[in-house]
Amino acid sequence: MNQSLRNKTDVLIIGAGPTGLTMACELLRRGLNCRLIDKAEEPSQTSKALGVHSRTLEVFEDMGISKQLIDRGLQVKGINVHAESKNLLHLHLSFQTLHVPYPYVLSVPQSETERQLILLLQSLGGEVERSKELIDLQQNGTRVTALVRDNDENTNITEEISTNWLIGCDGARSQVRKTLNLQFEGSTYEEEFLLADVDLDWNKSHDEIHVWFHEYGPWVVIPLPQLNQWRLIVAFTDKAAEAVPEASTELLQQLMRERTGDTTTTISNPVWMSNFRIHRRLVNRYRQGCVFLAGDAAHIHSPVGAQGMNTGIQDAYNLAWKLALVINNEASTSLLDTYEAERRPVAKSVLAATDVPTRLLTTQNPALRFVRDRLLLQLLSLELIQPLVVKKIAELDIHYRNSSLSQEYQGSLLDTNLLPDKESETPTLKDRFNFQTGPRAGDRAPQGFCQRYPSRSQTSLFEQFQNWVYPIAV
Ligand SMILES: Cc1cc2nc3c(=O)[nH]c(=O)nc-3n(C[C@H](O)[C@H](O)[C@H](O)COP(=O)(O)OP(=O)(O)OC[C@H]3O[C@@H](n4cnc5c(N)ncnc54)[C@H](O)[C@@H]3O)c2cc1C
Fold this sequence. Notes:
The protein is of the alpha+beta class and 474 residues long. The chain is 30% helix and 28% strand.
């Protein structure tokens, strides 16, 4: 029998992927009332997003789950680019000079990241309401009504949920985005990719990524945390083939020989295989009235650089504290406009930054391959360039200097002491120079070690931010 229910909540989150889970945890942490629904019966068990970057680990430290994740992951510290047996480039991913607490990319299956977020959610008193699918939504001034179908055959309930705010974290095919009629502009890349999580009986370093360039396309091997387990990704480019074949151990073995020249390594024990295409799309608006979009619902792009999940988690981290202030009447609703103003440019830049390397990696054009192999790889091998590239990949260079929330006051240059004067609070020229080289308003707040006053006990900036549920810079 069909039943209909009417319920209320402050915030309704659609989709319990990494973005929706982060959103729910961040809201519950601030004592807000929210519901999180997902149409899937169970959490996804596939490894999908493997790379968790330095900035996301800092976010997870703030949320209290970085250690759990690091214990279950593998710290990846370099990328090797080969052409057959020749080593073309070694990119260090681990730079002490960046002065960050997590100087590596953590390889950990997305299913494990989601599991840790679900455990955190439960510890905060929340839950994922499963088999519940958003069908439609309507906005009426200050409230949203969501029509949610319970896909559990035994219950067959339709629920009307009335909420102040609704967040669409429902992935690339977002129903929330569709009901808002927002544009998701962009395109799909021509190539189809094969993916497999397998065992390899070779002796290549297990804390590094290995990439082979080949005229028919790249062969990419990423380490998984379990010993001998690796993720293989290969672009299928055989134009003579009538259709792209399904990924299989035999096909991958053949492609490995062709792309790397390796005839001795055996591929075995596949735990996940898939064919996938990649897209490049960005939604035109992140907010319409009381409805927001975050994560893949708002932006999708190539997995090169492993930015997708990381960007979604940081979207949620950015929006949650603002929403909490507004719901608690501690800020005006205009604060919420800074979410799109800060996060959409980040997604736009991720789309651009992943597009060029994707095209260069997959190109079969001899001139472009020459530029890539002879010029770009030379540039990337420079010690001066590598930390800048790593900072970008790690999402450590994201800033909101142009946000209306970032106000900077530097005072007049005339107010400067030429010589040091211990008695005076006026800055010297050296003080001004040091200040300029530090973080600017809107930059990520870095880690730093300090003492409490007056006890002189040790603490750190991150520890202090953790206790403050409304962070200044995210
Ligand atoms: C092969 C591969 C490798 C990748 N590697 C990386 C990587 O290394 N690093 C990285 O950062 N990213 C990577 N990504 C991208 C990453 O997987 C996604 O960016 C990430 O999953 C997005 O998270 P999300 O929570 O926004 O969306 P999703 O993970 O797609 O979650 C959306 C959720 O919404 C639910 N849902 C959908 N519609 C509805 C509805 N109508 N009602 C209720 N629930 C609904 C779905 O069931 C799902 O649980 C990779 C992706 C792929 C495919």
